[in-house]
Amino acid sequence: MNKNILIEIQNLKIVFEIEGGKQVCVVEDVDLCLKEGEILGIVGESGSGKTQSALAILGIELQEPGIVNGILKITVGNERCEFYTELVDKYVRKLPNGRYKKNNRKWRREIKNEYSLYKIRGKKIFLMFQDPRSYLNPFWTIRKHFECLAPDSPLIEINDCLLKFNLDPSEVLDAYPCSLSGGQCQRVMITLGYILKPEVIIADEITTGLDLINQVAVVRSLNELKEKQKLSIILISHDIGFVGQLADKILIMYDGQGAEFGPAKNILDIAYDIKHPYTSELLKIFKDKHNLGYIDHPPRKNEIITGCRFHRRCALRETACEYEAPRDFGLMINEDHQLRCKKFQSSKEQ
Amino acid sequence: MEQNKNNVNSIYKNVLRGIFITYVFIYISFLLLSLFNVKLSRSEPIYPIFDKYGDALRFTPISLRFPFGTDYFGFDLFSQVYAGLKTNFIFSLITAVTFIFFGILFGVRIGYYYRSRAGDFKRFINSQNINQTHCKQVTYYPDIWLKKLKVDTFIKIVVNIFDSFPLLLLVLMMTIFLDGWIRSTNIKLALLMGFYGLFSAPRLAKMIIGKIKGLRAEDFILSAISLGLSNRKIIWKHILWYECRYLILYQFAYMLGQASILEVTLTFFNFGAQFPWISWGFILNNVYKAPLHFYIVFPIFFITMTINMYMKTAEVLKDIAEIRSK
Fold first, then answer.
1. Is some CB atom of chain B closer than 8 A to the CB atom of A120?
2. Looking at this predicted complex, what is its ipTM?
3. What is the average pLDDT across B121-147?
4. Does A138 contact chain B (CB < 8 Å)?
5. What is the mean predicted confidence (pLDDT) over B134-150?
6. Which among A192, A194, A200, A193 is positioned nearest to A173, based on CA atoms?
7. pLDDT tens digits for B225-234?
8. Touching B: A residues 248-307, CB under 8 Å
């Protein structure tokens, strides 16, 4: 059965400015595709651009100038958005010194008017953050959050939902976020997601910092949400094991680039031959956490790298990897499986 | 010994608090009565009182008819203070409302939206490799400045210019300037008070900018954006109402106090309210013109206490704002 594509990203590129006026590319050539009712996992190290990519889906850039390029198609319910590509041509120009300059005001106006991102945010695509306590307004009670963000929902429905996720409404509703535990706050966010009835949930490292019991509770809630509302979920985490339990497809990111994208069963299967060296490394570490071996740090953000970004750490590297970057992230292994590696590219060409 | 001292202190504080609350209650009651034009005495504040021989009733003893007595010219001091209450409050309110309106407008505009523009401006200078101490800056700077002159930049410049003016001098200059244009002194005073509010607005704007810049980096603002709240809602609901309301309220009370002093001062120097409006500055002016009498203590006490009340209220609100911000 063909499922509808909800979110499709091609060649996503995000440029930020760091101290000293230098512009760095934090995300480059990321492709992904989320279909209806699917769970897509994004796995990568800290700073690999997972959160930035997720925020770009909602049209949010964390820093200035925040130039986002690429093709992004969102089709959720009646809302259909395609943005970034034309905007870059219109409102971003390249300065003679190689840096970009963006007309922020027109950019924002364009996004707001033409693509109605405000209609999508929260109501169609719901974003859950890593530390929910800091993402809930510290001066608002939980009741105020529900009143403001879901004004149409009656209190009885809110109470029922809270009870479903194992929260006592009389205790939680009049409490401030600081007086609740991390797990409780996370479940409050999930309840909010349940009440808003979005079509896509982006869960950004939601189990980080939670104890095992709370982790299980959160995962169970998320599963329940998926089954009852037939949601699509983008699950962001650095833990390939956690993502592997839930995801149908996995995108592996390394240093701002998509390294591999494919079905979870292929990616997690160690016996499966065609695999990016970084994925193999991640799986090895996951299987045997005590045997880390030698691991180099990922390159710094302002570091200029020729060739493949992973070549310093790669066990399968060739001389060409140091000078030539792998071609576009579009090499098909089969219908859904793509990976970015010179080795597999050349073997395919042969 | 120390326990006794503490007890005495707490009793003293409670008594003061009681007096303050009583005074606020009296002030608000009288203010409401005067705003709704309820007459409390038979005599008119704008006319002196004469006896049957046509002489002014000077320094009449305190009685039910004249609770504060009369002054050298025969004016009933109580009815004058009562009428001055309304005048003072209305003109102070004009200043305070202008101050709050423009303070919030400037603060939000610069604090919330200015960030990217400032970044662009800095980058452009850097990219041209202009040494700011070098003489080349003189030739290049205006071109860049004009190119980049957008609404936000313009507002920031205006705010800085407003902030650098000595305010009392500015008000006096405006008085002289408005003399040739507007005849009605009351409208002139209203305009002056409005200008005073406008030119004081940068003080509030800077505080709000500080608050917004701190909050802009907070996670819950990012969360609010991602949940689909518009910028306007975030500014009103997350920032101004829940974070800055006590700050705004205390600045409002403080400004009411300052404006009261200004109104009294301007009227004292004959720049202020004229008949049929009665101002407290008028009472003080009469004191200056005529021999002093003990009865003048009552109105002056009332004026001082009113201004003190505004300041005290501002202090209390400031304490609350500080505690809240911690």
1. yes
2. 0.77
3. 35
4. yes
5. 35
6. A192
7. 888 787 788 8
8. none
| Matching residue, tokens 């209305």 | B90
Q: Is A95 on the interface with B (CB under 8 A)?
A: yes
Subunit contact A60:B225, Cβ cutoff 8 A: yes
What would you measure as the largest C-alpha separation in chain B, in angstroms? Answer: 88
Whose CA is closest to B277, among B91, B4, B27? B91
Residues contacting residue A245 through CB under 8 Å, at least 6 positions apart:
A219
* Helix (H) / strand (E) containing A269: none
Structural tokens at position B295: 């009865």
Query: A232-237 and A39-44 as β-strands: parallel, antiparallel, unpaired?
Result: parallel
Give the pLDDT score at B119.
40
Which two structure tokens, joined as six digits, stand for A323? 């000078």
Please list the alpha-helical segments (H only) found in chain A.
Answer: 50-57, 85-91, 104-115, 117-120, 132-135, 142-149, 155-164, 169-172, 182-196, 212-229, 240-246, 264-268, 277-287, 342-349
What tokens does B103 get?
Answer: 């303070």
- Count the neighbouring beta carbons within 10 Å of the beta carbon of residue A234: 26
Instruction: Compute and round to an integer the Cα radius of gyration of chain B.
Output: 26
A5 part of contact set with chain B, CB < 8 Å: no
How close B252 comes to chain A (CA, Å)? 23
For residue A228 the two structure tokens come to 């009852």
The angle at the Cα of A10, spanning A6 to A11, to the nearest 5 degrees, equals 155
pLDDT tens readout for residues A226-270: 777 778 889 898 888 888 888 888 988 888 888 888 888 888 887
